[in-house]
Each structure stands twice: as structure tokens, then as C-alpha cells.
Amino acid sequence: MVTLVVDFDNSLTWNGQPINGEADLQAHLREIASGPEASRPEFHLQPNRLADYKTVIHVMADAQRLGVTKLVIVGQEQFADGK
């Protein structure tokens, strides 16, 4: 499992390490999208509730375009209605 956090200021961290621009983000996404699908790690996207929607959607679009198939959005449990 890998975790990408989108912080309140739209900065990105990958497993606690800062992402330094678009090329760095795409390199990380390509790495987890390579290899057999069964062995690919889950990609946990954890947006801060104050992060811009545009930034979160951009990350999701990059992940999809680059072949990430196991995407989970985490950290929004406060919005679950329990049904």
C-alpha cells in the first residue's frame, strides 16, 4: 500500500515524502502501475478536507491515465452515513 496525501495547501506527500512537481508524481504513479496487476499495491489517496477539488481530481486523472487500478480514497469517514 502507498499513500498520497493532498494537504490543505495542495502540497503532496508520498508515504510521508514530499512530491516535487508533476514529473515526480507521474514517476511514482508509473512505478506502482507497472508489473502484473495482482501484485500492484493499493494506492490510497488521502485528501485534506481543505484541499482544492481540482488538485485531488488531477491526481486521480493522472493515476487513471498511467494505469493505476487499485485506487482508494481514504480519510473522509466523517461523511459516511453508516448505511
TrEMBL record:
It comes from the Bacteria. InterPro entries: ExbD (IPR003400). Keywords: Cell membrane, Membrane, Protein transport, Transmembrane, Transmembrane helix, Transport. One of its GO terms (molecular function) is transmembrane transporter activity. GO terms for biological process: protein transport. It is found in: Cell membrane. It is a single-pass membrane protein; Single-pass type II membrane protein. One of its GO terms (cellular component) is plasma membrane. The keyword Transmembrane applies. Gene3D superfamilies: 3.30.420.270. Belongs to the ExbD/TolR family. This is Biopolymer transport protein ExbD/TolR. It comes from Acetobacter pasteurianus NBRC 3278.
